[in-house]
Amino acid sequence: MSEDLKREAAARAIEDVRPGMRLGLGTGSTARHFVDLLGSKVAQGLEVICVPTSEVTARQAESLGIPLSDLDRLGRLDLTVDGADELDADLNLIKGGGGALLREKIVAAASDAMIVIADSTKVVEALGRFPLPIEVNRFGLGATRHAVDAVIKAHGAEGGLKLRGEDKGEVFLTDGGHLILDAFFGRISQPEALSRDLLDIPGVVQHGLFLNMCSKAYVAAPDGVKTLLKGK
């Protein structure tokens, strides 16, 4: 059922795509459905040019014949469509469960609009139930981890900090060669302040709080797809 709902949300987002658009393509299980549907439209003659947010998405898009470019050549994008690990009533997000948060945020910030597609299980009253991914440089990891731990404790993290993959004996690396620390909050009460404090740490590359970036969300539930708009 969940995959069906994700595809329904993706199908609604496809309706926002217009010929000639410059699109950002998200990463993750829901975004994968959007790329599949976009590939079908391209095969039928839709002309778009796209920037993928991960190597996985790039390979998927290439296999479907979707034309790709990059931000160095395009500069700005008309629209980015991506999934989310969490979204609240103000359309603030936690992203990065798939490890592509840096590229996802760069692409979203370079877009005139961002649409999130999700199933209803991703909607929360307050961000923080899903672990917050924090992308960090490999150099000086110990010092960075200590500084991040101090910040998240000051902001009330309930479950501490884990280096992604270390419990499996194979540390996760992002497409950019960075590491990810996952912070377990339970509830994030001051996301803007937390964002600033994390970015003040030199070893932090970026984090998964996407604040004031999403303008619309299509959320699929068993009773249909709901449209959520920023500020409404």
Automatic annotation (TrEMBL):
Catalytic activity field = aldehydo-D-ribose 5-phosphate = D-ribulose 5-phosphate
Q: What is its EC number?
A: 5.3.1.6
- What are this entry's molecular-function GO terms? ribose-5-phosphate isomerase activity
Q: Which Pfam families match?
A: Rib_5-P_isom_A
Q: Which Gene3D superfamilies match?
A: 3.30.70.260, 3.40.50.1360
Catalytic residues in the record = 104 (proton acceptor)
Tell me the residue numbers annotated for binding substrate.
27-30, 82-85, 95-98, 122
Question: Keyword set for this entry?
Answer: Isomerase
Q: In which pathway does it act?
A: Carbohydrate degradation; pentose phosphate pathway; D-ribose 5-phosphate from D-ribulose 5-phosphate (non-oxidative stage): step 1/1
What processes in GO biological process is this protein linked to? pentose-phosphate shunt, non-oxidative branch
Subunit architecture: Homodimer.
Q: So what family is this one in?
A: Belongs to the ribose 5-phosphate isomerase family.
This chain's function reads: Catalyzes the reversible conversion of ribose-5-phosphate to ribulose 5-phosphate.
- This protein is called Ribose-5-phosphate isomerase A
Gene that encodes the chain:
rpiA
